[in-house]
């Protein structure tokens, strides 16, 4: 039984990492494949396998075309922010449909694992068990968005504003991605520059476990 019960219209921090802390994204197309899966699996309607489709699209695929594609009309979850790091990922999700997060994450994890295992000729689990989830307190959404948007910087991978595999570039106007509903966060700031400054300042504080846990409901 999951410790955190997932209910509609609430916000959750969703995260997981590769089994044995292994990298789960090995090249640019892996990141793009995962982002495309986020779009296509976020639907109440059943979807087919993406593997053959994306092999056909690989030569023409790009991050820009993936980020600017529209989301389904009937979604399981609303995506607020995300970050994909080499060996783990973070999301802020709002559950829209009954068991929406569970359905979405099960499709995402299963589909990406099949793709990864076939591409790299391996077998077995790719992620470390089922995804982890913690409900976000009302006053924690802004701070947690900063932590996730700047997560690559927190881990010393790259400056957040230069990291392509997270939603920060969309939040600060550097990219026109449509994966996320940014307004729930950005409406709390005068402009995108204020959010940029807020995020960069608070990302360092979020590295402290005690500070981070204050934003979550276990």
Beta-strand residue fraction = 5-15%
Shape: globular
What composes the largest sheet? 5 strands, antiparallel
In total, how many beta strands?
5
What name goes with the CATH superfamily? Transposase IS200-like
* Structural domain count: 1
Order of helices and strands: EHHHEEHEHHHHHHE
How large, in whole angstroms, is the Cα Rg? 16 Å
CATH architecture: 2-Layer Sandwich
Mean pLDDT metric: 87
Per the CATH scheme, the topology name is: Alpha-Beta Plaits
**Spatial gap, N to C terminus:** 14 Å
Question: Unreliable stretches, pLDDT < 50, 5 or more residues?
Answer: none
Helix and strand content put the structural class at: alpha+beta
What's the CATH C level?
Answer: Alpha Beta
Helix count, per DSSP? 10
- Arrangement of strands in the largest sheet: 2-3-1-4-5
Estimate the helix proportion, in percent.
Answer: 25-40%
Model description:
With 218 residues, the chain is α+β, with helices and mostly antiparallel strands. The protein has one domain (11-217): Alpha-Beta Plaits. Helix content is 40%, strand content 14%. It is built from ten helices and five strands; from the N terminus they run E-H-H-H-E-E-H-E-H-H-H-H-H-H-E. The longest helix has 21 residues, at 100-120.
Task: Name some characteristics of this structure.
218 residues, Alpha-Beta Plaits, 10 helices, 5-stranded antiparallel β-sheet, 5 strands, alpha+beta
Question: Care to give the gist of this entry?
Answer:
With 218 residues, the protein is α+β, with helices and mostly antiparallel strands.
């Amino acid at each position: 039984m999951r410790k955190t019960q997932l209910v509609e219209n609430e916000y959750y921090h969703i995260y997981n990492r590769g089994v044995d802390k292994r990298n789960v994204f090995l090249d640019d197309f892996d990141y793009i494949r995962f982002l495309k899966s986020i779009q296509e699996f976020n639907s109440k309607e059943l979807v087919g396998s993406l593997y053959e489709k994306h092999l056909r699209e690989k030569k023409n695929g790009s991050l820009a075309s993936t980020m600017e594609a529209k989301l389904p009309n009937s979604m399981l979850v609303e995506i607020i922010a995300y970050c994909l790091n080499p060996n783990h990922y973070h999301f802020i999700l709002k559950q829209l449909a009954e068991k929406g997060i569970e359905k979405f994450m099960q499709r995402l994890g299963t589909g990406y694992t099949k793709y990864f295992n076939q591409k790299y000729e391996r077998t077995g689990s790719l992620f470390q068990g089922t995804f982890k989830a913690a409900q976000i307190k009302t006053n924690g959404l802004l701070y947690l968005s900063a932590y996730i948007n700047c997560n690559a910087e927190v881990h010393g991978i790259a400056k957040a504003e230069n990291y392509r595999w997270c939603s920060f570039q969309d939040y600060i106007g550097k990219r026109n991605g449509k994966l996320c509903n940014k307004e729930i966060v950005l409406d709390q700031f005068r402009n995108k520059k204020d959010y940029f400054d807020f995020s960069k300042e608070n990302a360092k504080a979020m590295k402290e476990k005690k500070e981070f846990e204050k934003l979550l409901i276990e």
